[in-house]
TrEMBL record:
PANTHER family: HTH-TYPE TRANSCRIPTIONAL ACTIVATOR RHAS-RELATED, TRANSCRIPTIONAL REGULATORY PROTEIN. Keywords: DNA-binding, Transcription, Transcription regulation. Gene3D superfamilies: Homeodomain-like (1.10.10.60). Signal peptide: none annotated. This is AraC family transcriptional regulator. GO terms for molecular function: DNA-binding transcription factor activity; sequence-specific DNA binding. The lineage of its organism: Bacteria, Bacillati, Actinomycetota, Actinomycetes, Kitasatosporales. It comes from Streptomyces lunaelactis. Residues 166-263 form the HTH araC/xylS-type domain. SMART domains: HTH_ARAC.
Length: 265
């Protein structure tokens, strides 16, 4: 079997995310190196063995590994079949340098909820137009990472805040087409992004990005029934492109926009 070195890397339009990196390696081994950013790593197939601060660690598929900036590490496959990994590189606006010490002491986190959330975050990052979802998921991932690294500093569970949730809903309604970044919304309503997401989800039983997408799809339905083509409808309802509209429309309505439009009488 020929050695595999397949990579896919990009920089999303999400504040604090320096790079997204997906890779499949078989025989390749990383030499000792450092990063300026935090490295948030999950392995989907296989396993990785690495040294960090002269201690050996491993990343099986059920683990989230957080490697701090400026600390040398390497990496190599555990089996001949190599590994598939997904990595986020995060700057200090997401995780502060005060967390470097705890991360060196315990970089591998066995937390099924965190593992699921990181995977969901990667999925959101692969779809242009889903920035609000990616920002929301990244905020909750960062909160959970800090809870692992500084457990005694974790705040109590946020209380219900229907007034705050209502203010965010009004913002989402006002920005239905152009959208709004989570950080901007948090600044406008003077709330922490994580608290804002939790308050909205608690009040309405749906995350902010799900609410926004639902409203956009609902408006798209009306325009399609007016006879407008799906491409025009996508632009008029805030979707990145027609494929972005189609993906969410089929998920929420059960059929494609074109089929829905043709069903009109």
């Amino acid at each position: 079997m020929a050695p595999q070195r397949n990579v896919f890397a990009w920089r999303p339009r999400i504040p604090g995310v320096v790079e997204v990196f997906h890779a499949h390696f078989t025989e390749y081994a990383y030499p000792m190196h450092v990063h300026e950013a935090w490295t948030l790593l999950i392995v989907d197939d296989g396993a990785v063995r690495y040294d960090l601060d002269r201690h050996e660690h491993g990343t099986p598929h059920d683990t989230v590994s957080l490697l701090p900036p400026h600390v040398p590490h390497n990496g190599s496959p555990v089996t001949p079949y190599g590994f598939r990994k997904r990595v986020l590189y995060l700057d200090s606006t997401r995780l502060g340098e005060d967390l470097i010490g705890p991360a060196v002491d315990g970089p591998d986190l066995r937390d099924p909820v965190l593992r699921l959330r990181v995977g969901q975050l990667h999925t959101a990052l692969t779809h242009p137009g889903d920035e609000l979802e990616a920002e929301s998921r990244l905020t909750l991932v960062g909160e959970r990472l800090r809870a692992h690294l500084r457990p005694r500093l974790v705040a109590e569970a946020p209380r219900r805040d229907p007034a705050l949730a209502r203010r965010l809903r009004e913002l989402l309604d006002e920005r239905l087409v152009e959208g709004i970044a989570l950080d901007e919304a948090a600044r406008l309503v003077q709330a922490h992004p994580a608290h804002l997401v939790r308050a909205f989800s608690s009040a309405y039983g749906i995350a902010p990005h799900q609410y926004l997408t639902s409203r956009r799809v609902d408006r798209a339905r009306r325009l399609l029934l007016d006879g407008r083509p799906p491409g025009d409808v996508a632009a008029a309802t805030g979707f990145y492109d027609q494929s972005h509209l189609t993906r969410h429309f089929k998920r929420l309505v059960g059929v494609s926009p074109g089929r829905y439009r043709s069903s009109s009488r």
